Amino acid sequence: MEIITRVQELLVAAFGNQAIVAIEESGLQAALVVASEALPEVCLYLRDHEETYFDFLSCISAVDNGVESGSFTVVYHLASIPHQHQLTLKTTIENDRTLDNLPVVPTVSGVWRTADWHEREAFDLMGIYFDGHPDLRRILLPDDWEGYPLRKDYEEAEAYHGIPIK
Amino acid sequence: MAFQLNDTPPYQEALRAYEARLAAVGAEEMVINMGPQHPSTHGVLRLQLITDGELVKEVIPHVGYLHRCFEKHAESMNYGKTIPFTDRLDYLASMNNSHAFVMGVERMLGIDRKIPKRIEYIRVLVCELNRIASHLIAIGTYGIDIGAFTPFMWCFRDREHIMNMLEWASGSRMLYNYIWVGGLFYDLPVGFEARCSEFVRYFKPKLPELDELLTDNQIFISRTANIGILPADVAINYGCSGPMLRASGVKWDLRRVDEYSVYPELEFDIPVGKGEMGSKGDCWDRFKVRIDEVKESVRIIEQCLERLEGPLKRTADFDPRALVPKKVNLKAQDYYVRAENPKGELGFYFVTQEKTDIPKRVKARGPSFHNLSVLPELAKGVLIADLIAILGSIDIVLGEVDR
After folding, report:
1. Which of A98, A126, B70, B207 could form a disulfide with B403 if both were Cys (CB 3.0 to 4.6 A apart)?
2. How do the domains of chain A map onto residue ranges?
3. B58-112, pLDDT tens digit by residue?
């Protein structure tokens, strides 16, 4: 059986139908769409359950779905070292794209410590606020940078500290 | 400080907490800046150490000095044009970077199984040559960090031969743009295989010399054994990969796990840390795993050469660009590809869009970035001199940390 169907069964049994929004099977890698509130519990469950045992978080990617759609997606790529399987989790958040109202996703840095830097990077470049993160500072850009450059509607500033950068 | 608690701008609580942490440094403690311009940090990495005498109480890494907006660039040009940018991620192993990127695009196009064997073998050959070059830098500069100068010169001398060969094949010394979607820039130049065999014959006896000089050197061992011990569970939890993870005793090599390219047809072992000189997962183990991986890469190169000179010999009508698509036409989809780089798991996450060959999103997962993130954990309570030994054993490339 595909690991993703088994994961879906396990998650529905453990958290009910609300946690899993959908299963995306159109592309080369199937993905589970998880409700953002349930994310930390789902991840902890998947990390510790003996059948799944996703102990390695490969990647967290924040994706801007475009200005018209008004939403962001955060994609989690998990891997299991003992079982050698992979899983993709996604969560989508609606947002109005203003700079003082960032999309909020609960942090998974308590599940995998590596999520700490992944989430700082997503916050820095895409402006996703990870609720409960221990140290959510910008990581690649300077602390006083304005805006989130990987957003589709990002506009470069004319100058940075009086230095013309355009 | 002029900041009041109630005028903290939104989303800057963590920054204020960090400033408060530094402001609260006690009379016994001192904040020391290491880098960004310091040879021991292997590039532009800045570490803030909160020290108590010679002991490091806390390390706060600051990265981003070499941020070149790879992901933003990749969203504004087509896949073929992005390959030179991938070369600049881990600039010591450019072939491996472009191999991973190209593999992802080929799988999305569905042509990954159609690539001729000769092309795949050439790709593996140049990647393994580049892996040796990257590990030689790691080994040599690690010697320098500890205070041994000669191994550095020896490693650079041998690496120079690899650089010359790859320059001959691609026209460039470090940033090759050699592996293309669907093929190669050019076939190997005539005589490359012979020269490569000559290099292998020259290089093999150099490794025992390096072992005598550095690996089994008592001074080196006392500086590295039992220093910076990284247990396997911590390594996995922090997303460490590559030699860093294998030194902690986890046999995890994506060349074997994912069996990509022609690696299933090749014989090689996966060296893991055994704690021979101290404890499993210490600095010496990480160093030793790299030394052993160089030997395994030499084995792979020998097998590749055997096949490239034998059954897959170059023919006059062979065109390495035959499958290179004029335009990469993809349906809207997303795909995460991972490959084993010299530093660890390099991943690319693509989100493609319909009717254009420009991706909507490309995320690069650099192994050095996550290997570095474990440093604050490893450096708790160590001596400042040991911190240099630990940092050197992680083998970071800032081009990949900052992307």
Report:
1. B70
2. 3-164
3. 899 998 888 888 998 888 888 888 999 999 888 888 999 999 999 999 988 888 8
* Nearby residues of B44 by Cβ (< 8 Å), 6 or more positions away: B35, B36, B37, B65, B66, B398
Among B17, B236, B349, select the one facing A61 at the smallest CB separation.
Answer: B349
CB of B73 less than 8 A from some CB of A = no
Instruction: Tell me the two tokens of residue B3.
Output: 């900041």
CB of A28 within 8 Å of a chain B CB? The answer is yes
Q: Averaged over B309-331, what is the pLDDT?
A: 83
Q: Which two tokens stand for residue B320?
A: 């390495």
Q: What is the mean pLDDT of residues B270-291?
A: 88
Q: How confident is the model at residue B8 (pLDDT cuts 50, 70, 90)?
A: low
Comparing CA positions, the residue from B99, B94, B165, B154 lying closest to residue B291 is: B154
What token pair was written down for B171? 């026209």
Contact B236 A141 (CB under 8 A): no
Domain A3-164 matching CATH 3.30.460.80: the answer reads yes
> Number of Cβ pairs closer than 8 Å across A and B?
101
The domain limits of chain B are: 5-62, 70-402
* Interval B35-57: pLDDT, tens: 787 767 777 888 888 888 888 98
Out of 3.30.230.10, 1.10.645.10, 3.20.20.480, 1.10.760.10, the CATH code matching B70-402 is 1.10.645.10
Task: Please check the confidence at residue B2 and state whether its pLDDT lies above 60.
Answer: no
Residue B200 has pLDDT above 90, yes or no: yes
pLDDT of B3: 47
List of chain A residues whose C-beta atoms are within 8 Å of the C-beta of residue B112: none
C-alpha distances out from residue A38 to A23, A48, A91, B266, B344, Å: 16, 16, 10, 44, 31
Q: Percentage of chain B surpassing pLDDT 90?
A: 29
Does residue A105 belong to the interface with chain B, where contact is any CB pair within 8 Å?
no
Nearest residue to A145 via CA among B263, B69, B394: B69
- Give the whole-angstrom CA distance, residue A47 versus residue A24: 21
Question: Minimal Cα–Cα distance from B248 to chain A, Å?
Answer: 14
Q: B129 near B301, Cβ under 8 Å?
A: yes
The arithmetic mean of pLDDT across residues B271-276, rounded, is 87
Is the CB of residue A67 less than 8 Å away from at least one CB of chain B?
A: no
Subunit contact B363:A100, Cβ cutoff 8 A: no
